[in-house]
């Protein structure tokens, strides 16, 4: 009895031992497979990382654009300080001899804008022959993509009066220079201010000055041409002067709206279209928008 019991225990012990070895062997195989799969996953991740490393230069491009932006503003501030002094000195003579056009101030502004943009971007002009003579009043209109648009337009050397938010006039040097140039202030979302702005524009045009409008009212965030407001065209109809449509191409890519701290490399193209005239603000508005849109489409 005892022998049979011992034999049974021995049999069960050997069975348990075999079972344990089988389990250990299975566990080892499982561990090896798990280790192998982890190695494969790590390899794939490493491969993906090395493939994605090509995206690293993108951050370098962004860093380069920010450095260019800082240099751009450093140049514009440095030149503005010295040229503003010149503007201050000549201001009494400008008020005395050229109160409405202020061509001398706009010549200084052209020098400032040219010195600022020349080290960073190239500007190409098309249709300069379509510009009216310097002393001929007109209403200029353009699409609006970027903060860079003002610099680009000032390089044309025409003494047209811009319309700007009142808050910009508070900026040191730049805002003060705008005041000396006779830039027209506007409070957005204020209907009375908008009406006063249009009245000022009409009065200036009747006295021989030109005015400039961005009929979209604000910068385009996606580069697409927005709807035009007809205020500029009402001024043209009431004063009987031509409208000069201008298409700006490339400024939105070089300095996108909302990203004024960056300056990407690139070329800006300015297309000056033939002046248009009419006796209906709505018709002029539609015609000018179609002309500017066609300019964008042809270059797109």
From TrEMBL:
Classification via CDD domains: LPLAT_AGPAT-like
Catalytic activity: a 1-acyl-sn-glycero-3-phosphate + an acyl-CoA = a 1,2-diacyl-sn-glycero-3-phosphate + CoA
Residue stretches in coiled coil: none
Any GO BP annotation: phosphatidic acid biosynthetic process
Record-annotated Phospholipid/glycerol acyltransferase domain positions: 138-251
GO cellular component: membrane
Membrane-spanning segments: 70-89, 162-184
Keyword vocabulary terms for this entry: Acyltransferase, Lipid biosynthesis, Lipid metabolism, Membrane, Phospholipid biosynthesis, Phospholipid metabolism, Transferase, Transmembrane, Transmembrane helix
Record-level Gene Ontology MF annotations: 1-acylglycerol-3-phosphate O-acyltransferase activity
EC number: 2.3.1.51
Family label: Belongs to the 1-acyl-sn-glycerol-3-phosphate acyltransferase family.
Domain notes: The HXXXXD motif is essential for acyltransferase activity and may constitute the binding site for the phosphate moiety of the glycerol-3-phosphate.
NCBIfam families, A to Z: AGP_acyltrn
UniProt protein name: 1-acyl-sn-glycerol-3-phosphate acyltransferase
């Amino acid at each position: 009895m005892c022998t049979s019991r011992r034999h049974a225990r021995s049999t069960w012990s050997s069975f348990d031992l075999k079972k344990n070895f089988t389990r250990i062997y299975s566990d080892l195989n499982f561990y090896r497979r798990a280790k192998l799969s982890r190695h494969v996953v790590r390899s794939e991740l490493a491969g993906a990382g090395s493939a994605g490393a090509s995206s690293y230069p993108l951050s370098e491009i962004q860093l380069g654009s920010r450095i260019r932006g800082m240099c751009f503003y450093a140049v514009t501030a440095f030149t503005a300080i010295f040229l503003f002094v010149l503007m201050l000195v000549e201001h009494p003579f400008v008020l005395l001899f050229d109160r409405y056009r202020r061509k001398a101030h706009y010549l200084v502004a052209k020098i400032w804008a040219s010195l600022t943009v020349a080290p960073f971007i190239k500007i190409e002009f098309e249709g300069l022959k379509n510009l009216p003579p310097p002393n001929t009043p007109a209403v200029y209109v353009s699409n609006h993509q970027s903060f860079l648009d003002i610099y680009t337009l000032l390089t044309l050397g025409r003494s047209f009066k811009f319309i700007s938010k009142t808050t910009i006039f508070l900026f040191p040097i730049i805002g003060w220079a705008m005041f000396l140039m006779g830039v027209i202030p506007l409070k957005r979302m204020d209907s009375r201010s908008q009406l006063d702005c249009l009245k000022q524009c009409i009065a200036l045009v009747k006295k021989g000055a030109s005015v400039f409008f961005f009929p979209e009212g604000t910068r385009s965030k996606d580069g697409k041409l927005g709807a035009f407001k007809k205020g500029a065209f009402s001024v043209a109809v009431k004063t009987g002067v031509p409208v000069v449509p201008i298409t700006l191409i490339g400024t939105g890519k070089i300095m996108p709206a909302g990203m004024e701290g960056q300056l990407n490399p690139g070329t800006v193209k300015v297309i000056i279209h033939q002046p248009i005239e009419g006796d209906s603000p709505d018709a002029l508005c539609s015609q000018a928008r179609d002309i500017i849109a066609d300019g964008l489409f042809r270059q797109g």
